[in-house]
Every structure is written in C-alpha cells, then in structure tokens.
Amino acid sequence: MMTTAASPQTCEVKTTCPYCGVGCGVNARVSDNRLIAVSGDKSHPANLGRLCVKGSALHETTGLEGRLLQPQIKGQPASWEQAINKVAQGFKEIIAEHGPDAVALYLSGQILTEDYYVANKLMKGFIGSANVDTNSRLCMSSAVAAHKRAFGADLVPGCYEDLELADLLLLVGSNTAWAHPVVYQRIVAAKKARPEMKIVVIDPRQTATCDIADLHLPLKPGSDGYLFTGLLSYLADNSALDAAFIDNHTEGFDNALLAANQLTGSVAESARLCGLNEAELGLLYDWFSRTEKVVTLFSQGINQSSSGVDKGNAIINCHLASGKIGKPGAAPFSITGQPNAMGGREVGGLANQLAAHMDFSDPANIALVESFWEAPQIARKEGLKAVDMFQAVHDGRIKAIWIIGTNPVVSMPDADFVREALQRCELVVVSDCMEKTDTTACADVLLPATGWAEKDGTVTNSERVISRQKGFLTPAGNSRHDWQIITAVARAMGFETGFRFSSPGEIFTEHAALSGFHNNGKRCFDISGLSALSEREYDQLKPVRWPCVKGKQHNPVRLFSDGQFNTPSGRARMLPIMPAAPLNQTSPDYPLILNTGRIRDQWHTMTRTGKASRLLNHIDQPFVELSTADAETYAIIENDLVEIASTQGRCVVRAKIAPGQPAGSLFMPIHWNAQFASQARVDSLFASIKDPISGQPEAKHCPVTIRKLNTLWQGVLISDKELTDLPCEYWCKVPLEKGFRYELAGLTLPQNWPSWLENQLEIGTDRIELNSSNNYRLACFNAQQPQLLFFASSDQISKQALPNSAWLSKQFAQTTSTAAQRMSLLAGKPVDNSDDGGAIICSCFEVGEKQIRQAISQGATSTDALAARLKCGSNCGSCLPEIRALLS
Ligand code: SF4
Fold first, then answer.
1. 19 lines ligand 1 (CB under 6 A)
2. What is the pLDDT of residue 797?
C-alpha cells in the first residue's frame, strides 16, 4: 500500500473513485481503520485534484450500515465453505444435466478488472459457455459495437485533454454536468480560459450542461442519427471533406454518403426530421465544417437506443470524412458511465467478446486464448446478452445465474419480468456488499463481497487510463474479495490449475500477458509492458494509459495519429447509415415519451450514495419532470403526486415542472428502487427493446401516460428505526445522519392517526401531539432525544405546506431540552421563527435555495460573490449551473 505518513495513526492512500467513468484519483485519509476524509488527487491525469460532490462524500458511505457480512443460504447464515460448495455443486449438477449454456454470470462495471478477468476465464475457458454478460451492456455496448465496426476494435481514440483543446465541442446525449461532473468542470475551465471555444449541446432536454453552451439543439427524442447523416451530406456539399484522409485511410465512403443523401440530403430536411430550427442546425453544420479541432462527446443518449450502434457510426463517419480524428483536440469520444466499464471490455466481459479484445469471429483467436489459458473446454460461440440472458432465465433455459455487484431487478428494462425470472430460477447466487437490494431479495445464496474501500485491484476509465484502486480498510465482517470468491468456486468445481491466484497482482499480470500473447501489433489493446510487474511494482503502479506494449518506449496518447486502424486493411470503415426512429412509438393510450438519466448527487441504484444523507439533500424524492404545457394539459402542479404508466408497469412519483423539458416528453431518474420508494423503479416501465447489433436496451424512449393522483393526505415521518412496507400509496425513504425520514401520501384517510402509527412502530409515552380536523402532529421523545416526528395533513390547501423536511431532519439529530424546543419541533419551524434555508442547492456546504436567493437580493450577484458570502459552489462546483440559474 502506497501511503504517506500524516501522523502515527493516520495515513493517506492514493486510490480511485468508484462511481462514474471519469475515473478520478482520490486521496483517502485513513485513521484506525476508518476513512475520515477524501480529497482529489492532484497527480491523477483524469481529475488533477478535482472531485465532484459524490466523490467528496465517499467517506460518508463506508460505514457498516446495511452491509452483507456473512454468507447466507436460503436466508440462513452459512460458513464460507458451505456457501462455496453450494454454488460449485449447484453449477456442476446443472451443467452435468443440461450443459454449460444452462448457467450464466452477470457482472458489473463496478467490479475490478481482476474480478472480471477470473469470472470471464471461468465461464468462457473452463465451464465452456460465453453466457457471461455485464451491466455495461446497458451503458455503452452500442459504442463498443460502433467502434468495432469503424475501427476494427473497441478503441476510444482520444483523451480528456482533447476536450480542452477542441475549438468546437459537441456534447451529444450527455448531461455531462451531472453525469460526469469532473469532465464538465474541465470543460468549464477550458471555456473560461478560451471563451472563443464553442460548445454545442445536442439533447432534447435543456439540462444543467446547457449552462455553458453557445448553442443548444433540442432535437426530437431519438432523432440523433438524422442529425449526423445530415452533417455528412452537408460536409460533402460544402467542400468540407478531407479527401486525402478519405482516400488514404478509410473505406466505404461512397456508400456512406449515398445513404446519408437518401434521407438527409439537405439541411432543411435534416432539421425537419430532427424537429429543429433550420438556421440553428445550419449553424452547427457550418461550425463543424469550418473547425479543425472538433470533439464529439457522446454518451447514453446515443447508446441507449434501438439504433444506438448506427448513431455511433453516424457520428464517427463525420469525423472520418473530415479527418477530425487522431489529432490533438479532434476525435469522436464515447464517455462510459461506470468506473470500470472499460476494464470489463478489456478482459472480454461481454457475452460477444472472448478475451483481451478478441472475439469469436476468428477461430485463431479461440485457439490462442485456449492455449494461453490451457482451457479444458473453451466456449466457441457468443453467449446471451443481458436482455436475452434474463429471458432465458425466465423460460428455464438458464437454470443457474450468479449475479456479481449489480442490481438487475432495478436496472434492467422490464424490471418486473427480470424479478419474476429470478424468482423462477433454480439457483440464484448474488455477490454483493449490501444485504438488502431488490436483487439480493431473490437470491438462494448470498455471498458477502468487500466494498470499495476494501477492494484491491485496477480500473480503466473512459480515456484508457488504468489506475489502482486500493484496499485501505480491512474487509467488513466475513466479506471476501470478488476474485477470491470466484477462484474459490472455480477450484471447488475442479478447475484447480487455472485459478491458483493468491493476489490481484498475479491476476493482473496474467491479463497483461494475454493481451500481448502472439499479438505482434495485431491488437491495439496490448498492455504486455505491465506483464512482468512485481507485487511491489503493481502495488505502486501509477495511472498508465494503454496501449502499453512491452519493449516500446513511446506508446501513443491518441490512437490513429498515423492513420492506421485495427481493421484487416488498416483503413477505417465508413458505414452506410439509414437512421431509424425509435421502435416503440406513442399511441393514444400512451401519448408521452419518457426519457431517463442520472441526477447530480446519486449513483445507480443508491446502494452506496443513499447512505450519505448529505447526498439526498439536493433531491430527496423520486420525480418526473414535465413541461409547463403538459402540466396544464394534465392539470398537474409542482409537487403533485402523479402516476406514470406504460404497457409494462406503473410508477408513483412527484411532479416537477421544468421549463427546459420539451412538451410531450417526460424525464425520470434511474436511481430509486424498492428499498427507497414504494413504486419508482423506472425500468419497470420499459419494454425490452434493444439494438439488434449491440443488444443494448432502449432506455430513453418509452411511451407512457401521466395522471395526477388525488391523494387524501400527505405526511412526513421521522423515526430512529428503519420501516418497511408502509401501508400507503406513496412512501419514500431518506436515510438521515440519525434515523430515517419517510415522505408519505395516501389515497384513503386513516380513521385514527395514533392507531395507524402504532401499527407501524412502537410509540413512547413521552409525547406531545396536536390533532385538528385536517392535521395531525406528533413528537415523541426518549429522554432529551426526539424518537419520532410525524406530520400529516388532509387539508387540500395546507397539505402542500407541511414543515420543511430538511429542517426537521436536522432537528431530529439535536438534543431537545426545553419546552420551547419541543414545541418548535411540533410547530415544524425554528424557535425564533427564522427562515429554514430552503431546499439544499450546494450539498458540500449545505446551502439552501432560500439562503442563496436572500444573498442575491442583498447584492451578491455573481457566483464568486455568493461563494465569498455563503461558500456555495466553491468546492466541487457541481451546483454552479443551478446557482447560475438562480442568478439569472
Ligand atoms: S466525476 Fe465524481 S463520480 Fe465521477 S469519478 Fe470523479 S469524483 Fe467520482
């Protein structure tokens, strides 16, 4: 462990953030086996010292609350020996009776490269099936397929520095400000230093990312393909092609242009198909054609589509046709969602990959991997991709599945179907660090895995940089590392020889050696330069970008600078793209389009970020954003409880009226699940529609309808105990520093509030209450500590004016010694009647909207002035777009 002594008890460890694909370096300050603080690592090339609000709160998420600490079989504690034998025996019996394709592994972009490597090796090399897929399928598999089609391999040409060097930056289908905040901060700083740099946001929604945009193109949902084929036609019509590059380094140009011209041969037609203003689209095309340094950063808005691969290739075509690739500040750039999606791709963790950027298309690849692994029975064909895999679980073709580090009952489309599939399955094994998730609830065998602060290995970020993630806390309870669990199961299945690893370093060097095995320049993914690392060198490995070829002094930062691609001809392939509208279209019953995405302060299914109460200050309840026009049509006002329904399911969430939301289109976040809310699993609304090439599900375009729920009461309950299954139409849990808050609403009015409460939890006798015809309030105390606070209102006017939950939550952690303090709790506002700060905008310094508005009215009319007065926005900067919105 590379540490720097700070005091006898504390040390600082360099590690990597476990959340998004930016892959920021983190300094973790550790004292007595506790993570006490984090800061950005100034020496890490991804973030150069920055962290976003999620990264800054990492030390608030490593407690033992909710951790899975012991193996379980059928809900009963078990020893590791029993659990490993149960899994190994179960898999062996099913394979013996039904063959290797009757079992499957489903992995995660959150696990480390070493975990991925042994899981992939076990399944493809030793069990003999390629039924190993990963939640990265849901995130960027369309970009992977587009890269392979165009470049011959899954290669991201550029690096983050290119985003700063570009003179024109296109952000497509990416709310970078919230989903990749540190990359966004780098772009903001570059724009500040060079105001002439142009930024264009291409997104149906007006997101926080538009804050720095010179041009926002709010295109029709799903129409991105038309925009980029239109751009290719425009480049050809306006002498903006790089003829020499096309001639010398590409193939397929004529067909690509022919296809583009068929549908989008004029700016007017492209604008019509995209629902855009012709002049504004023309401006983008003009800028693109006149600018040499252009980066197109694309993300889930492109990938999560029934034609995501074509959209990726439509983007790449434009860069190839104009030679804007392989140069500083010029590249198509797919940014990944997860911290180790790239590492998973490197080892071959997708069902259509084999290993080390080799696939099943060439028998020589299979023979090569077979001999390297000394594999007893290697898979010879692709396995089932995520959607098909869970379909096979549902219909019984797959009889055993092992899910590692992910929560498909929340994140897969048609999530209720996935839950049903797991409930039907003969053997469901789940490895996780958390005990209660929507997926662990379906497990026959639960295996406690170590968490971020305990795991040791490597991850690769979106710019091909491999970084060490360090284990600096001792494994919690009886948890073990994923690679240890997988290799133990492999050995118990009889595969002794291939899995005698005693450290992650040994696994990494084997992985590195495979990447260089009989490579000779054939495969760009080559990290053979790292294959001879000693344990000490591996431990101290600094961030390193691939390729990193053995014996080669200068490995390129940017790919394709020499015009050479990874195809048999060495030329990049331009594809004829015929754009298509999303498959699932609206109907009279489902007339609105639902889009999904991340919010600023949460990560995936909230199993970790949900533990940091500070991260729930910004947005604490599941919501749907809708336009002002739709709000009027459906008679919905801000904060109403609404039902969103599709052909697959229904959700109940709060309404947020957002001026930047286009009419006819809704937006919901992906994070909430059955552990945090009664009915807010957005993926339960989506049908399993997927891209035919990549298998990536369409998660941005779901026909739905919306209606206001006529609730008869709403309430807030704060308890020192965690509650489950509250008997009301809507509940949403907000973990606090001390206790839990529940936001509630019901369609039927309980007869008697005290009895209703007593059915849910024990209420002490030291209590004060207020009971009027429409309102009920109760505060219970244990000595001088609040034990329970409850506010309910059935008043149609005042129910929107329940006390400020954030203020109440803070008070719940305080000692309440005087009668005035007790009464203040029941009143739901401060003793001195002062203001409560309002909804939190700056999570780092807990600065509320009301405070910011007040400071603005008192003359703090810039972000700098507000930072000087309230500190808001002065740490991670994630809230700056919202502060600017308040200022404007
Ligand atoms: S941008 Fe934030 S979430 Fe992403 S890696 Fe950096 S600190 Fe972590």
1. yes
2. 57
